[in-house]
Amino acid sequence: MGEVRGFFYPRTASGRSSLIPRPPWYYSGDLLTVEYRTDPARVAELLPAPLTLAEDDPGAVALIWADWQSCSSSREELLDPVRSQYKEAFVVVRCAFEGRTYSRCVHIWVDKDFAIARGIHQGYPKKLGSMWQTRPHPFSQAAPRLAPGAVFGATLAAGDRRLAEAVLHLTGESENGGFVNGHPMAHHRVLPGIGRGDADAHAELIESGASQVDAGQAWRGDVELRLFDSPTEELARLEVHEIIGGFYRQVGVVWDGGRSLARLTGSDREA
Amino acid sequence: MGEVRGFFYPRTASGRSSLIPRPPWYYSGDLLTVEYRTDPARVAELLPAPLTLAEDDPGAVALIWADWQSCSSSREELLDPVRSQYKEAFVVVRCAFEGRTYSRCVHIWVDKDFAIARGIHQGYPKKLGSMWQTRPHPFSQAAPRLAPGAVFGATLAAGDRRLAEAVLHLTGESENGGFVNGHPMAHHRVLPGIGRGDADAHAELIESGASQVDAGQAWRGDVELRLFDSPTEELARLEVHEIIGGFYRQVGVVWDGGRSLARLTGSDREA
Amino acid sequence: MGEVRGFFYPRTASGRSSLIPRPPWYYSGDLLTVEYRTDPARVAELLPAPLTLAEDDPGAVALIWADWQSCSSSREELLDPVRSQYKEAFVVVRCAFEGRTYSRCVHIWVDKDFAIARGIHQGYPKKLGSMWQTRPHPFSQAAPRLAPGAVFGATLAAGDRRLAEAVLHLTGESENGGFVNGHPMAHHRVLPGIGRGDADAHAELIESGASQVDAGQAWRGDVELRLFDSPTEELARLEVHEIIGGFYRQVGVVWDGGRSLARLTGSDREA
Amino acid sequence: MGEVRGFFYPRTASGRSSLIPRPPWYYSGDLLTVEYRTDPARVAELLPAPLTLAEDDPGAVALIWADWQSCSSSREELLDPVRSQYKEAFVVVRCAFEGRTYSRCVHIWVDKDFAIARGIHQGYPKKLGSMWQTRPHPFSQAAPRLAPGAVFGATLAAGDRRLAEAVLHLTGESENGGFVNGHPMAHHRVLPGIGRGDADAHAELIESGASQVDAGQAWRGDVELRLFDSPTEELARLEVHEIIGGFYRQVGVVWDGGRSLARLTGSDREA
Fold first, then answer.
1. Phi, psi of B173 (to 5 degrees)
2. Minimal CB count within 10 Å: which of A89, A241, C51, D257?
3. Can you tell me the ipTM of this complex?
4. Which domains are assigned to chain C?
5. Whole-prediction pTM value?
C-alpha cells in the first residue's frame, strides 16, 4: 500500500494535495494593533492550567488586524495569489509558564483555509471571519500615507455579525508596535477523543515564535475601539477598561516550527 | 487559573465560543452520488499502512455532493442558518483493515468553518471549496421534481479553478444510493509535530459512522462526469475508467462519535 | 463594425456574454414573509411623485426572504447551478398610482450578479447581501417539516453588519402568503446623467408582475422580528409598530416583461 | 409624497441608502497591465455602430488587474474599508468615433456591489468575479519589491471557472503603463425596454475619463498570459497573437463625470 506524503492532510503519493506545505512559512504584511486593559479576571479565565496570569500588567490585551501575503520556500503561491493573500484579526493576552512570560492568542479569525490549517498546527484557534483594514498607499486620493495624521479603520465580522471596529489616528513614531504580542506564543493544541465522552486524544502545550522578523518604522496613534457581542463569540467579554494605544507597522516574518512544552492529560474539556 | 470548557477551540470559561458543539450532530440533506471505476493502483496509493485495498471492486470511487442543514442537540443553529447550512463535495474509496471493509474519504471540500472543524475531529481532510448542485422543488418552473426524467447538475471548484462537473439524468428507483460510501469510515487523524522535522505528534486510525440514518426513496440515473486538474488538487488523478451509475437521495443522519482503531507511529509523512 | 447581440451587457457578436438572458425568466423557490405595520409617514417618504400612499392599510410592510433556483427558457443554468441559485431578502410596501394599488420594493439584497442585473431591468434597487433562511426537509434531524409547529429562522446582513433577524413559528394553513406583495409592482428605473450635476438621463415608472404563478399550500405563523441600523441602510427606519403575521409558501413563477407607466423628468435626485 | 434623494438607488428621504454616492469618486491603487495583439476582426465585432476600429494598431488589447481603495469626498468609506476596497480585472480595446481615438472596456469583473453600480453609471459592463494580483511590499519574505527582477502573478475567475492567468517579470523602468487604456473611454449605457421584445429604453454613447491622475514610476516587464474559455464569457475569443508587454504602476485617480456623445436608437440588441 501507499507511502503517503504531505505535511498536512490530505496525504497522497505525491504530497501535492496537502492543504499546507512543510515549514518554513514566509509572510509579508501590515499589522494594525490596538492595545487596551481589561479586567485581569477575564484574561485568567482563558488560561487553563498550567498557565497563570502574567505578573506585569496582567489585564493587557492586543487586538491585531493583519493583511498578509504568505508563501512556502518555493514561493510558487506568490504567482497564484489566491493561495497567498489572506487577512486576519486576532486577540492576544499574556500569561506565565514556569517563570517565563508568554503571549497567547485566545481568539482569531481568518479568511482562507490554508490559514486555518496553519492555526491547527500552531495552536491558533482559527475561525472564518471577514476582516478589513485601511491600506496605506503612496497616492492619497483614497488612502492614508504612513505619516502622522494618517487615519486607518479596521473591522471584524463573523457569522454575518460585526464583532469589532477600530479607528487609529497616527500621531508619531514609536519604538515598537506594541508589547502584548511581543513574547513567544504559548498555545494549546488539542484534539478531542473520537469516542463519545472521551477525554482529549491529544493535548499539548507548545511554544512558538517567528524564526526571523524584519520590521519597518513603527507608528503610534490614538484609538477608538468598539466591541460587539454575538451568540457564538466572546471577544466582547474582554471589555475595554482603558486604551493603551494603537500601532501600525509593516513586517516580514519567517516561521519555522516551535517546541513542545508539555503533554497534558487532556481532560480539561470536561471540566 | 481557568477551567476552560468547550468541545473544540477556542475553549473558554463558558464554552460558548467553541467552533463546534459536543456531538451528537444532526443532519438533513440531499446527496447526489456518482460512482465510477478508476485504476485500483490510484486508490492503493491513497491507503497508508495498515490499510489495504478492498477485495471486491477495489477501483470503485464515489464522488458525492451534499447540500446540508445541520445542528446540535439544542437545534439553535437552525434559527441562525448561517451556522446550519453548508455544502460539500467529497471523494470516497473503499479499503480493508483487519479483514473488514471500510469506506474512506480521500478528498473533501466544504464551505463553512464549522464543517472544517468537524472534519478535523472525524478525520475528513476538508478544504474550502465552492460546490453547487441542482435542487429539486415541487414547482418545476426552474427545478426538477424527484422523478424519472429529472436532470441535476453538480459542480466543484477550489482555488478559483473548476475541479469537477457532473450531470445526472434520473431513470428510475434504486434500492440504494450507491455502495462505495456504504461502510463505516476508516480515517486517519494526524497532527504534525510542532518541531522542525518532527514526526507526527498524533497519528491515529479511527472508525466512524452514522449512529442513525433515515433515507428516502433512492433514485438511479445516467451520469456524465468530467474531472479537471489543478496544481493543488489530485481529484483528477482518480481517472474515470468506467461509470458505475448515479444516485439521488434525501437523508436524515445523526453522528455521535466513533472509536479508535489504532495509534500509529506517525512517521509516514516523512516517507 | 459589429452588430452586437445580447439582452444585457456586455453585448458581443454572439450574445453569449450577456449577464442575463432575454426574458422569460423562470423561478422555483421558497418564500418566508413577515408582514408588519410601520408609521405610514415612513412609507410615504419612500414614494416619489407621482406615487401616493395606498388608501387601505398604508403602513403595511412585507419583509420577504426568498431561496431561489432560476433559469432562462433554455434551462441550461440548472445544470451549472452557480448560475441558477441565489438568495434574496426584500422589503415591499404598497402605493397608489392613477387610482390603482401597487406593490413596490423599496430595499432589496441578493447574492449573485445576475440577480442584480435583473433588478436593474425590473427596477428592484438591488445590493449585495448575505441572506439565510431555514430550509424545510422531509427528514427532520436538522430541519422543520412544512407543518404546524415548524420553526424557521431568517437573517439578513450587508456590509458585514446584521440588518434583520426573524423567527417564524408555523401555526396552521393560510389562504395566502401575505397581502402586501400581492399587487403588480410599481418601480422606478433611473439612470443618472453622465455629466457632473446632470439630471437623470433616464427616469421611468414601470409596472411589472409575474406572467404565471404556481403556489403550494400557504402556511401562517407567529413571528419575532428584529431590525438593526447601519450607516448605509435604512431598513430599520421602517420601525415595527405591529406584527401582522408570518407566512411560508413554495412557489413557481414566470416573469416575462412589464410595461412602462410614465416617463419622468428625472430631476428628483437633486430634490 | 416624498422628495427622494440619492445619486443611485435606492433613493430615500435622506439619500443615505444610495448604493453609490454622488461623484467625484477617489481611487488609490495598483495596476498590473498586460498588452497584446489579437485579430482586429475580434475587436471589430465588439464595436457597435457608430464606433469603428482605431486606425493605428487596431488589434491591441489591454488586460488590466487593479487593486483599489476608493471613496467619496467625505472619505468616510476609508474608515469602514469593506465599503472602500475592491479588486477588478478588465479588458480594454481602442476604437474611433468622429475622428478621435477612444479606449473602450469590453469585459470587466469586480468583487463589490458599489463597483458594479459605478459601472452601470460609467458604462463598464461589470460582472462579479474573483481577481487576485501579487502585492509588492517593503519586506520581501513573501512579496516582490517594486524593482527589476520582481515577479507578479494575476488571476481572474468567474462562475467558479478560471478565465485568465498572467505572470509579469519586471525588467526595468517604463515611460508609461501601457497605451491601450490611455484614451478617454467611449462606452455605451443601455437599458433594455421593459416590455417583451421592446427596443432599448435608453441607449447612449458616453465619453468618460479621469479628471485627475497621479502616477508613480511605471515598470515594464516580460509577460506570460493564458486565457481560458467559459460557457458565459468571451475573453478567450480575444486570442493572444503577440504579447506587447506588461506594466506595473501605482496611481491615484479622481473621476468626476463624463459627457454624452450620442443618443442611440437602441435597436442593436435585436440585430
1. -70, 155
2. A241
3. 0.96
4. 25-183+210-258 (2.40.400.10)
5. 0.97
